Amino acid sequence: MSHRPYVIDTMISAKAIAARIEDLATEIGSEFSDTNKLVVVGLLRGSFVFIADLVRELDLPVEVDFLEASSYGDGMESSREVRILKDLRGQIEGRDVLVVEDIVDTGHTLAHVTKFLLNRKPARLKSIALLDKPARREVDFKADWTGFEIPDEFVVGYGIDFAQRNRNLPFIGNVRFTDDNSC
Ligand SMILES: O=P(O)(O)OC[C@H]1O[C@H](OP(=O)(O)OP(=O)(O)O)[C@H](O)[C@@H]1O
Ligand code: HPA
Ligand SMILES: [Mg+2]
Which parts form a coiled-coil structure per UniProt (predicted)? Predict the structure, then answer.
């Protein structure tokens, strides 16, 4: 729980997100047009809103599975230690896999999860992140598709939390502390 007062400014509107997802779904549809064995894997918890909207735009036969990974706890800094808290329910060996993530920040989470899943020998593994914050990168990782590149701001909404709150906002906003006199 944060004890500092803050407000949330809109960074990316719900309408802009929906329009971008339509385009991303078209690109993903072309990449996977030759397969009927695609498993779309959402990383809990942050991706739950994005994956729900993305799969409904995909005109492909898909299965949906989830993996829970966590590295932030309730703070604003990565622990750099990615914990797998819940494994996939299904097998992915020989399957095509699309990993769906809300945000790539330091890169530790998606780099770790990608390595973890590649060990299971999928036929093809691709990743998509709604947001990318390249200024904060600590490990060299880039998702195959990115919705929006964003500046170095702590964001919330559309599945993304600050101390577990604000995941239910329909837009992406940035946190601005109101007790910080420097801004
Ligand atoms: O690139 P990174 O610096 O690793 O940060 C990105 C990850 O951090 C957040 O997850 P978090 O660990 O907060 O768990 P959550 O998805 O349950 O909110 C976010 O949802 C990404 O998964
Ligand atoms: O900007 C962020 N907001 C919330 N959680 C996060 N995890 C990584 N980056 C962020
Ligand atoms: Mg996450």
Answer: none
Which has the higher per-residue pLDDT, 80 or 23? 23
Q: What is the pTM of this model?
A: 0.96
Q: Where are the domains of the chain?
A: 14-152
ipTM of the complex: 0.98
Kind and range of the H or E run holding 71: none
Mean pLDDT of the chain: 95
Residue with the smallest CA separation from ligand 2 atom 3 is: 155
| Cα separation, 79 vs 166, whole angstroms | 21
Residue 132 is among the residues annotated as catalytic for this protein: no
Q: Decide yes or no: CATH 3.40.630.30 for domain 14-152.
A: no
